[in-house]
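Re: weekly structure request thread

Next one in the queue (298 aa):
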Amino acid sequence: MVIPKMIHQSWKTAHRIPQALAPWIRTWRTLHPSWMYMFWDDHDNLRLFEVPFPDLYDVAKAVSELADMARVALLYQYGGLFQAAKQAPVQGSGDGDGDEREFLVLAEIAALQGTGKLPVAVNLMHVGVLYVLNGADRDREPGQFTFHDLCDFVERCEAEEKASSRGTQVPTFFRQTKEARCLLDMWEVATAEGVPAVTSWLMHVLRENGKALRGYRADSDSINTDTLNLLGRVLYMDDGWVADIARAHDVHDDPSKETWRRLADVAEYVNAFMAGWIDQLGRVGVTAAAEISFRSSR
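Done, posted below.
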């Protein structure tokens, strides 16, 4: 099982962290440059229970041990490692921190959704950005991808957003145009190189994830349901979409009784999904790649 490369830390409020702890917190990030770092305060901890665990929300508001409850909840929801703010790291993770998993880890992308901690949405609907970043390094095989590249992209967005907002909490014009740019990149790549090219890349991503999660069968080029569901989450597919893809009935000797789908059948479904998405754009008048000019209304 692949553990999402995320480090979680928590304190009552980010503005009142004791000065003695601040260097230790920074060191966790320095020693693990390829890991996503997520800081949670009491407000964030309560939000954990609003949607994923609504039955526990009232309890979370009433108890004094909110941080303890949240620690279990966030690891269950997002995965990764939780490190106490009072604990100083003495060395890195021991894996070289070069992100040896050189592919886009769907579980990590899915875990970032809905946290409210990123300035732009991160999902495969922004496949144009991911596809271009992947192709920028010609030494990589299709589907290989360093999560650190995506972190860099998001951090650059965050820095630009902060510079634009100048301390205000109001989403800026930069944020709106950045999200529009990401979606437009997907459309431009799909129309310029063809939907099948993008679909083929996604199948490489799925195959790499399946191998890491022991959810790939090379003999039938099939993927298991758990891995497919990760793709559904990051593409925002409707619930039950996997059931629309024919099962690989010849994979019947699996003792775990796992359900499998051939990647060829998955590719056909995703190809139709993306083609339909582009067709919807065409219906509202988006038909050719062009520079977008944003004009202020008077």
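Strands lie at 6-10, 36-40, 81-82, 216-217, 222-224, 260-262. The radius of gyration is 21 Å.
Next request, please.
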